[in-house]
UniProtKB/TrEMBL annotation, chain A:
Chain ranges of the FAD/NAD(P)-binding domain: 8-303
Keywords: Oxidoreductase
UniProt xrefs under SUPFAM superfamilies: FAD/NAD(P)-binding domain
Matches recorded under Pfam families: Pyr_redox_2
The organism of origin for this protein: Streptomyces flavofungini
InterPro entries with a match to the protein in the record: FAD/NAD-bd_sf, FAD/NAD-binding_dom, Metab_Enz_Cyan_OpOx_G3PDH
Annotated protein name in UniProt: NAD(P)/FAD-dependent oxidoreductase
UniProt keyword Nucleus, yes or no: no
Length: 332, 509
């Protein structure tokens, strides 16, 4: 029923890590290297990050401006294709049919792909409101940065008029950029931590140039609103309670690995990250199955996980040549 | 049929006269000039009244409309919300009960027992997901253990004799992930899980296709006086007036308010809030049965149950409130549920939460349903339908139809409704993304939009063009599961919204 096919290396996820691994492997001439991407466009999260800084190089202590996410994503896809990898979009790996065999669904039908090695590069996602157990109303107007960026940059959707941004990691500042671009006023940025986690320049620009107040030591206790969000309840560590009125709330950061495929394949997880447990060579405890990028350690910038992808390519190639797998994989 | 202006009764073939209307905006259109299934009326008039109007499009109201649609009647359903099942129906524990623990001899006990059989058969016929997973009433202390035999005999008095007492070892063999300290259980093999969203939608779909008018966004503000004789009364709604000969109050949480509009002050609905937490599919392997608490003097307690979508449900709390709109969760409620869940199924708490929500059950001061005919007013109250309403819905509908006849409604002979097939949202059968035949015929079924729940563009398109289409992201989720998974829209939210709003081809980069 399901057509079956064999490839040399199957990479799940065409984000920066998966594409770099694909480029490295294809360039090394390991045979057929196929990347499966469930979205209609390859490139991963940078696809919808319109801020700059992607692929920025640091030299003598100075960091260059880099490029925008979509540009960076296209360049990574092109690099993988040029190296000879096959990047298939709109193809979802739905489950395992064997230790190195994956079932897929795409508009062209169902397939069963067996590889000599499988690389899981499924990335990470921001923990949404429900998983954070933020109580209150289930009103509309609640986003993660990922959804917000896609809504604004890929679909041009209307967002709202006044937002509260939860979190102060670098991604929160990306969310602020996107909100500004969408014409949404920002009531406040709140974080339970005592300070922001972005570069001092980013944080200062946000506060001073754009006038976004940063409330530190403040936890979101409740969402208020019927149909649409009307306010966010916050509690300061001093016990002070306040409601910030807004019609949009963006939960940023707090990344968690997209580990479903790893778990369905019986790959052991690292207790700290809940991503697949891997050793220094990106090997999981299932022989032939590697994991690379933010699925293994949410979350690092695109350039860092692309570098991992290149290193993983070396490990995968070594495994294809030697066939050796350690009996016990120790996490790093 | 009293004064409907059509010749004859009984020869009706419901469903052959064209579908009813689903309206959400604008002034209410006049009632159709004749029963849709009947021949050309002899006295056509734009001001013909409806024969029966049902207030409320929850699982009970839609079931009643569907049952009435088997007869040659002009029927309207009037609903304040913008979708069916928007009140209590959408936020419950999604269990198809056997009625083993009902109050023996009560109306609820009878209707749950009968409704369970009817709905199980109906679900099989139209593709409403049901799984007979069975329930275990788990005893965690000696007092609860001692209560099990009495529950078993109570089940017997409710006509259910398939319960089995299990000792601790037998229980653990069935549920190895149970927390330490479980002493035994009463097994109820026929308790099932069901899709609470598809059920009212199936009723509404079949009703509308059989000629029922469904008026949404339409809040009843005044029920008017009953006209003398068989004349119609005029209902005032937020979207204008509507005339009807008979009236059914299936307003759920607001059934007491509607009842007072009719001059009755016999019960008060006290919303009982139940908060629930839904865990991700990766938790499904932890539990095979509905794990019920043993009811004690302190209340019914918290259950853990699989869902037909492959999730695990933890809840509900039981908080009596005054505010019929208090459907928010609370920090205390969620913390309490997690503490209870940690005892029942400790590994559950390591899994991702995909949703936390609260539903309001329509509790009254009475311990039974409040279903009462008022023949002088040609009016039937259907109140106090609590969490068992989903199970009992079809039996309630049959019962209410009988009461309408007692109030003078000429039903004629019922006909058969054209069957409906609902999209199967459950995990028990292959979903569209797993079906080569469907994808070959239409590649849209191979195009995944929501990755966590594996919902395809084809399924979303089908929902948007269905008989009772959604108008919100939540309505679309209840019809397809799109956006209902662990990422809550991180990956697909914008794409799903674009499909809903009809701008799905804007992605340019």
């Amino acid at each position: 029923m399901r057509p079956e096919r064999t490839v040399d290396v199957l990479i799940v996820g065409a984000g920066p890590a998966g594409l770099a691994a694909a480029a490295g492997l294809a360039a090394a001439g390991v045979g057929r290297v196929e990347v499966l991407e469930r979205e209609e466009r390859a490139g991963g999260v940078p696809r919808h990050c319109h801020h700059g800084g992607f692929g920025a190089r640091t030299f003598a202590g100075l960091t260059g401006p880099g490029t925008s996410g979509p540009r960076y994503a296209r360049a990574r896809v092109d690099a993988a294709l040029r190296a000879g990898a096959s990047v298939r979009t709109g193809v979802t790996a739905t489950g395992w049919a064997g230790p190195l065999t994956l079932d897929t669904t795409s508009p062209r039908g169902l397939e069963r792909l067996t590889a000599r090695a499988v690389v899981l590069a499924t990335g990470a996602r921001e923990r949404p409101r429900a998983a954070r157990l933020v109580p209150g109303s289930r009103a509309a107007g609640v986003y993660t940065t990922g959804e917000l960026q896609q809504a604004v940059h890929l679909y041009g959707q209307h967002i709202g008029t006044r937002a509260v941004v939860v979190g102060a990691e670098p991604v929160a500042y990306a969310a602020l950029d996107t909100l500004r671009r969408a014409g949404v006023e920002v009531a406040a940025q709140v974080t339970a931590e005592s300070r922001h986690r972005a570069t001092p320049w980013r944080a200062a620009e946000s506060r001073l140039r754009y006038g976004v107040p940063l409330l530190t030591g403040a936890a979101v206790t409740e969402l208020v609103g019927r149909g649409r969000v009307s306010a966010v309840g916050v509690r300061h560590r001093t016990g002070l309670l306040a409601q910030l009125s807004c019609d949009t709330v963006v939960f940023t950061g707090d990344f968690v690995p997209d580990h479903e495929l790893a778990r369905r394949g019986g790959v052991s997880l690292a207790p700290g990250t809940r991503g697949p447990a891997i050793d220094a060579d990106f090997r999981t405890d299932i022989p032939g199955v590697f994991a690379v990028g933010n699925v293994a350690h949410a979350v690092e910038p695109a350039g860092a996980v692309a570098a991992e992808g290149w290193r993983a390519a070396v490990s995968v190639r070594r495994y294809l040549l030697s066939g050796r797998w350690p009996s016990v994989v120790r996490g790093v | 049929m009293s004064g409907a202006g059509t010749p004859g009764t009984g020869a009706g073939a419901p469903g052959t006269g064209g579908p009813g209307r689903v309206t959400r905006t604008g002034a209410l259109p006049p009632a159709p000039t004749a029963p849709r299934s009947g021949p050309t009326p002899t006295s056509a008039s734009a001001h013909e009244p409806y024969d029966v109007t049902v207030i409320g499009a929850g699982v009970v109201g839609t079931a009643i409309a569907r049952e009435l649609a088997r007869h040659r009647l002009r029927i309207a359903v009037v609903e304040a919300a913008d979708d069916v099942g928007e009140g209590t129906s959408k936020a419950n524990t999604a269990i198809l009960h056997t009625g083993f623990d009902a109050v023996p001899g009560s109306l609820e006990a009878r209707l749950v027992r009968e409704g369970q059989r009817r709905l199980a058969a109906y679900a099989a016929e139209c593709g409403i997901p049901v799984e007979r997973v069975g329930a275990l009433l788990v005893a965690w202390d000696e007092e609860q253990l001692a209560a099990l035999p009495a529950l078993r005999s109570k089940a017997g008095r409710n006509g259910y004799d398939r319960t089995v007492l299990l000792d601790a070892a037998e229980l653990r063999a069935r549920e190895p992930h149970l927390g330490p300290g479980a002493l035994g259980a009463l097994e109820v093999p026929d308790e099932s899980i069901i899709c609470p969203w598809t059920t009212p939608l199936a009723y509404a779909t079949q009703a509308v296709r059989s000629g029922v008018d469904l008026h949404l966004n339409c809040r009843l503000t005044d029920a008017g006086p009953a006209a003398p004789g068989a004349g119609p009364r005029t209902l005032t709604t937020s979207r204008g007036e509507l005339r009807t000969r008979y009236l059914v109050n299936a307003a759920g949480l607001h059934a007491d308010t509607v009842d007072r509009m009719l001059g009755h002050d016999t019960f008060t609905v006290t919303p009982r809030r139940g908060q629930l937490i839904v865990f991700d599919k990766l938790a499904r392997g932890l539990v095979d049965h509905i794990l019920l608490p043993v009811p004690t003097a302190l209340g019914k307690g918290v259950l853990v149950a699989p869902t037909v979508y492959g999730n695990v449900l933890l809840g509900p709390t039981a908080e009596d409130l005054d505010d019929k709109r208090a459907t928010g969760t609370t920090a205390d409620g969620l913390a309490c549920l997690r503490a209870r869940g940690a005892r029942i199924l400790p590994a559950l708490l390591d899994e991702d939460v995909t949703a936390a929500y609260a539903g309001l059950r329509a509790a009254t001061e009475d311990d039974d349903y409040r279903i009462a005919p008022w023949p002088d007013q040609r009016y039937v109250t259907v109140g106090g339908i609590r969490s068992t309403g989903l199970t009992a819905s079809m039996a309630i509908a049959a019962h209410v139809t009988g009461l309408l006849a007692d109030c003078g409604l000429d039903l004629g002979e019922p006909g058969d409704l054209a069957p409906v097939t609902m999209p199967h949202l459950g995990e028990r059968f292959p979903r569209p993304y797993q079906r080569a035949d469907l994808i070959a015929a239409d590649p849209a079924y191979g195009t995944l939009v929501c990755h966590c729940e594996r919902v395809t563009r084809g399924e979303i398109r089908d929902a948007l063009t269905s008989t009772v289409p959604p108008v919100s992201v939540d309505g679309l989720r209840r019809r397809t599961r799109a956006r209902g998974g662990r990422c809550q829209g991180f990956s697909c939210g914008a794409a799903v919204r674009a499909l809903l709003e009809g701008h799905d081809r804007l992605e340019t980069r």
